[in-house]
Each structure stands twice: as structure tokens, then as C-alpha cells.
Design brief:
This protein is of the alpha+beta class and 438 residues long. One 2-acetamido-2-deoxy-beta-D-glucopyranose (NAG) binds next to strand 8 and strand 12.
Length: 438
């Protein structure tokens, strides 16, 4: 009886074993499972986006986690379930049966997808192959509108070898259902899944006609974190920068002020480099804008330096003062210019003071002397006036240039504000068009 019980529990006595053996006994996995070779095997596909793991604009890669389902019919794997204890469905090793060679066209790298060795087969020979996969796919990512950007990445499924006459593709569910299905999507990351429209094509090339199914994964960035961390601080910096134009252009503290803003900008840009996606094809608008603002700042700063330098050399022509500030040099210059006149007067005064009660002959000389002195004073004043006029004209030119720069700055700021608002508008209109349908 011991032998009988072991026999009764022998695996070869189980119905499952029996059925599997029956099915695979004469099975050739090399052969496409159709009785009539003219008939194409149709593979039904289903696709669900589970998560967006990484969007790499620099390398133009998208990493997604997807649930992918293939269903096809194997005419050689059908059985009469009433002959096998009513078994309706069994699992078979995928390696033992024929399976379609469907790949993702944009595929760059399959990362750590679990290797699932079994598939379900039901009694009419329908095989279901479900697999979760992490796909790293090539995708042309547009960073122009960052952080209000939407990305459209396609995943194209097609057979690598079989033409449409051998292997056809079809949707398992209706395309509307696939498009709106976000049930599985992990919706608390940076990216929001808008929709997954899909299309079926027959692609013609020199090797033949191939059936292909494209799923367009349309995702949108949630911009709040970037608005708080990047946009708002940058707008503050820009407003302060704009305020610096209200300082008179020849004020030396303006240089210090602008230099510190420039340093602030530089620190900000270095910080931003890590946050803003970089791609070779398109630069984010926000980066272009910052560069333009920086150019304005540099232009205005160099103009201020030029102004101070010009006024300084004009007033100290010939003298070498290492002083940089405008107001101090002007006062020093004034003191310098008045000094020789005063000393010469004093020198002339002292002899006239002592021999005050002397003869009239000397009075004519004194008058002559005074005339000469007056002439020299008037020429000195004229020269001063001329330089003052020259200075004034330069200051006027630089003021005008400053005004021009200010206007340009305002214009750029205005354009940027309008662009940001319209991008925001487009971004939120996408939301409103998608919401009612979902
Ligand atoms: C298989 O098991 C049944 C009982 O479930 C028994 O009657 C039969 O003899 C066994 N057959 C073999 C070949 O072991
Ligand atoms: C195969 O199918 C085609 C039509 O689909 C039919 O004309 C042909 O006779 C079939 N061949 C066999 C061997 O059944
Ligand atoms: C399955 O087998 C049962 C019993 O042998 C038979 O009556 C039935 O017609 C078969 N069904 C099919 C679809 O062959
Ligand atoms: C096998 O599965 C397919 C697809 O799900 C279904 O249409 C078919 O009715 C199933 N066959 C049986 C016998 O359950
Ligand atoms: C996504 O891109 C594909 C082509 O790559 C295009 O056919 C499709 O219309 C695009 N979808 C949207 C919503 O932009």
C-alpha cells in the first residue's frame, strides 16, 4: 500500500501534469501557432503608465514604469476542459512556447524589470502575458517652457521581424479607455499624467509592412516648487535691479549696488543650473531671460564705470589721483583750483598792504596788476565753465543712455511677464480641457 500511495501522489498522476504533458509533447515553439499559415497571429496589447521615474532632458531620456499586457491565441494550446477535470486555465513556462518578438522602438535600456517565467493559457488557447517593465526610452523633451512644460513621449510597440501578414497588432481595450486610464498612476510626483492617446499604423519600409501601435504618454510638470524656489526669488532680484536705475548714474554707490546685484545673480544662476533642465536643442526661456537681464546689468554697470572714469580723468587732467569716487575728487579738484588763485592774491596783497600810503604811481601799477589778475581769473573761470559744460554734455549723454537701458530693461521684463503669463495660461487651459473628459 506504501507503493500505491506514492503512486497516487506521483506527479505523473496529476491531471495538471497530464494536461501539460499532452499540450507540450508535440509542441514546437519555433512555429507560429496557426493551422493555416495565411492567417496572421493577432497580438492584443494593453498599456498602463504606472509612474514617471525620471525625465532627463540633457540626455533626452524618459524613464517610466509601465504595466504591459500581451494577449494572443495559440491554436496548438487548446484543449477540451471537460476531458481534463474541468481545468480552464493553466500556467506554462514562457520559454517553452512561441511568443511574439515585440519590442519598443524608442527603447534604450530596460532596467531591472522582473523576469516573469510563466504565462496563463486558457482552454481555448488564449495566452495572457502580463509584465511590469521599467523602460528607459528616447524622447525629444522640450524644455523651452520650463517650468510650465508638457512633454509628449511616444512608446512604439512593433514586431522586430514579422510583417503585418504574419503578425498583426490590435488594442485590447478601446483607445478612449486607454487614454483616460490613470487608475494605476502614482500621482504625487513632479509629473502629472494628462492622457495616453494611442494610434495604430501599418508602417511601410523596404523590409515590408509592419504593424505598430504607438502610445503617447503626455505628462505635465507641476511647477509650484519651481515657482517658489526659482521664479519668485528671481523676480525679486530683477525688481531690485530695476530699482538700481533710479539711483543717479553718476552716483558712485550705484556701482557698489549693481556689483552686489551682479554677484547675487551669479550665485542665483549657479544654484539654478542644478534645477533647470539642460538640453542641447532648446534652452529654457527662463535661462535666456536671466542672461538678457544679466547683460543689461553688466551694460549698465560698465556704463557707470565709464561715466565715473570719464569725469575723473576730465577733472584731473594731468594730475594722478588714485581716488575713484566722483564726489571726493570733485571737491579735491575745487580745492586745488582755488588754491593757486588765493595764494597769488595773498602774495599780491601783502606788498600792497604794507606800502598803502605810498605815491600814486604805484596805484596805476596795482590797477594793472589787478587787471591782469582779473583776466587770469576770468580765463580760469571760462576754462572751468567749458569743462563743466563738457561734463554736463557727457552726463546728459550718459543719462540718456541710462534711460535707454532702463526702457530696454522694462521692455524685456514686460515681454517676460507676458510670456510667463501666456505659458501659465496654456498650461492651465490644458488642465481644464483634460479634466471634464476624465
Ligand atoms: C492515479 O490516482 C488514482 C486515484 O486518484 C488511482 O486510482 C490510479 O490508479 C492512479 N494511477 C496511476 C497511474 O498511478
Ligand atoms: C487558409 O485560409 C484561406 C483564407 O483565409 C483559405 O483560402 C485557405 O483555403 C486556407 N487554407 C487551408 C489549408 O485551410
Ligand atoms: C469535449 O469532450 C466532451 C466529452 O468527451 C464532449 O462531449 C464535447 O463535445 C467535447 N467538446 C468539444 C468542444 O470538443
Ligand atoms: C479564454 O480567454 C479569452 C480571452 O480572455 C476568452 O475570450 C475565452 O472565452 C476564454 N476561453 C475560455 C474557454 O474560457
Ligand atoms: C504627440 O506626438 C506625436 C508624434 O510624436 C503626435 O502624433 C501626437 O499628436 C502628439 N500628441 C499631442 C497631444 O501632442
Amino acid at each position: 500500500s506504501g507503493i500505491l500511495t506514492t503512486d497516487a501522489h506521483h506527479p505523473s498522476n496529476s491531471t495538471l501534469h497530464h494536461l501539460t504533458q499532452q499540450l507540450l509533447q508535440n509542441y514546437r515553439k519555433e512555429v507560429r501557432p496557426v493551422q493555416n499559415w495565411t492567417q496572421a497571429t493577432t497580438i492584443y496589447l494593453d498599456f498602463l503608465v504606472h509612474a514617471v521615474l525620471d525625465v532627463d532632458a540633457q540626455n533626452q531620456k524618459l524613464k517610466t514604469s509601465i504595466w504591459y499586457k500581451e494577449i494572443w491565441n495559440d491554436e496548438f494550446l487548446a484543449w477540451n476542459s471537460s476531458l481534463f477535470d474541468g481545468i480552464g486555465e493553466i500556467s506554462l513556462p514562457l520559454s517553452a512556447i512561441w511568443s511574439p518578438d515585440i519590442i519598443i522602438n524608442e527603447f534604450m535600456d530596460v532596467e531591472k524589470s522582473p523576469d516573469l517565467p510563466y504565462v496563463y493559457v486558457n482552454s481555448s488557447g488564449t495566452i495572457k502575458n502580463n509584465k511590469p517593465i521599467q523602460v528607459v526610452s528616447a524622447c525629444s523633451l522640450e524644455t523651452y517652457a520650463f517650468p510650465f512644460d508638457t512633454q509628449n513621449c511616444s512608446l512604439t510597440f512593433k514586431s522586430i521581424l514579422h510583417t503585418v501578414t504574419d503578425l498583426d497588432l490590435a488594442f485590447l481595450r478601446s483607445t478612449e479607455d486607454i487614454e483616460k486610464d490613470k487608475a494605476l498612476f502614482m500621482n504625487d510626483g513632479e509629473w502629472e499624467l494628462l492622457s495616453v492617446p494611442s494610434t495604430y499604423h501599418v508602417m511601410h519600409n523596404e523590409a515590408g509592412d509592419f504593424a505598430q501601435i504607438q502610445f503617447h504618454v503626455i505628462i505635465r510638470r507641476r511647477p509650484l516648487v519651481y515657482v517658489v524656489n526659482l521664479l519668485i526669488p528671481s523676480i525679486f532680484l530683477m525688481v531690485v535691479d530695476l530699482g538700481s536705475f533710479y539711483l543717479p548714474p553718476n552716483c558712485r554707490s550705484r556701482i557698489t549696488f549693481k556689483t552686489s546685484i551682479l554677484v547675487g545673480y551669479t550665485v542665483f544662476k549657479v544654484n539654478m543650473l542644478d534645477e533647470v533642465p539642460r538640453s542641447a536643442m532648446s534652452t529654457p526661456l527662463i535661462g535666456v531671460f536671466f542672461t538678457i537681464c544679466m547683460a543689461f546689468l553688466v551694460l549698465s554697470l560698465s556704463k557707470s564705470i565709464l561715466l565715473v572714469k570719464f569725469l575723473h580723468t576730465e577733472r584731473n587732467s594731468g594730475q594722478d589721483h588714485p581716488l575713484f569716487c566722483f564726489q571726493r575728487t570733485s571737491r579735491a579738484r575745487l580745492a586745488d583750483s582755488t588754491h593757486p588763485i588765493r595764494t597769488s592774491l595773498v602774495v599780491d596783497d601783502s606788498p600792497t598792504d604794507v606800502p598803502h600810503c605810498q605815491d600814486h604811481q604805484t596805484q596805476g601799477e596795482v590797477l594793472k596788476d589787478a587787471l591782469v589778475q582779473l583776466q587770469s581769473i576770468s580765463s580760469c573761470v571760462q576754462a572751468l565753465d567749458q569743462t563743466a559744460q563738457q561734463e554736463a554734455s557727457w552726463v546728459a549723454i550718459l543719462y540718456r543712455f541710462d534711460k535707454l537701458l532702463f526702457r530696454g530693461y522694462l521692455l524685456v521684463l514686460g515681454v517676460y511677464t507676458i510670456t510667463l503669463c501666456s505659458l501659465w495660461g496654456i498650461w492651465s487651459s490644458l488642465k481644464t480641457t483634460v479634466r471634464p473628459s476624465s
